[in-house]
Amino acid sequence: MTDRYAQVAVLNGSPQRGSFTYAVPIGMELRRGMSVVVPWRTQWVIGIVLEVSTDSEVDDPREVARVLDPLPLLSQGQLELADWIASRYVAPISACVSLFLPPGTPSRPRRTGDGFRSIAPTRPRLPKRLILDINDQQLREVTAHWPMSKVSRPANLLLRLIERPLESVEAAQVVGGQRALDRWLASTSMASREADVISLAIDPGQARAAADSLRRTSAERRQLTLLRLLAAGGMEEAAARRSSGARKQDVDVLETQGYLRRLVASEPTERSDPAAPPPLSAAQTEAVGAIVSGLDAVGGETFLLHGVTGSGKTEVYLEATRRALDSGGGVIVLVPEISLAPQTVARFEARFPGQVAVRHSRLSRRESRE
């Protein structure tokens, strides 16, 4: 008869407020944080061991069926944090534990316990990183003469309107008829009609850029956007493709043409050295000093940094991050929306290469695991 019992957070698809007691079979090695298969009513579920003790408040509890992974999935710190979240926010412990489990962990009961497999994360494939394989001057020349292989009548009209306003009849001839002109004017804010005269509603530079875009295929636009994005520095391929809209075949084309290179994360890159921080202004120095002084405060301190766009707030965050890392701490950076993540990651990755990880809801399961 066993004299050891485990408190288990069960992952049954319906978050439970507390843990459940199971008997530990004789000879079974069980530790906190390990994943196990346990019976749940008439079915079987995965559970995470929260505690192992010699006491049980339940008479004749059911036994743990088997250990799923030989090593704990959750560390002592993660278990303590899950318990704190559950207590602080009155949340189900199973839901709090699930926050630390690998993506794809089964959370539904099954008819038998034999179908469950190890949920320990496998060694991730190293993410690929994209860097430009041309210098800044070459990039300017390449982007200035990027292919425009698409025939676009609206683009031709925009280029004509840059030179001078056109009579409606003349403009209709350029775009392929009066109906085509009417449809285009109704769908765009780049040109307007007044007294039967068509003229630009935007400045010539914007019109020329719009015409160039219209004369490019979608693939040409995606590839150009990707090159311009990488001008700021190397990025992980997944993040670069999300930000630019580029597809795998676009990256393949640019790599074949010699414009960029794919590197595995462990390979050195030309831009792997930390970017040198610029000198701080007096206001920035004062802000950094206040933040750093609060790092050692009991319970921590909260600061609100005021400054208009472009005033140098990010540099304050970067310097405060450096001070925290130098003192053995860690830093979590929150951005207000996912679309801002790539540029923020690029800034922090340039200053702290190899030390930046990204988590948000648009990452695939594979990307989250990596």
Task: Give a nutshell description of this structure.
About 40% of the residues lie in helices and about 15% in strands. The chain has about 375 residues and is α+β, with helices and mostly antiparallel strands. A five-stranded antiparallel beta sheet has the order 2-1-4-3-5. Strands 10-6-11 form a three-stranded antiparallel beta sheet. Strands 7-9-8 form a three-stranded antiparallel beta sheet.
DSSP strand tally: 11
Mean pLDDT, to the nearest integer, reads 86
Could you estimate the helical fraction of the residues in percent?
25-40%
C-alpha geometry: elongated
Q: β content, as a range? A: 5-15%
Rounded to the nearest angstrom, the radius of gyration is 29 Å
**For the largest beta sheet, what order do the strands appear in spatially?**
2-1-4-3-5
Listing every helix as H and every strand as E from the N terminus to the C terminus, the arrangement reads: EEEEEHHEHHEHHEEHHEHHEHHHH
Largest β sheet strand count, sense and barrel closure:
5 strands, antiparallel
State the end-to-end distance: 43 Å
Structural class: alpha+beta
Q: Total helix count?
A: 14
pLDDT < 50 runs, ≥5 residues: 267-271
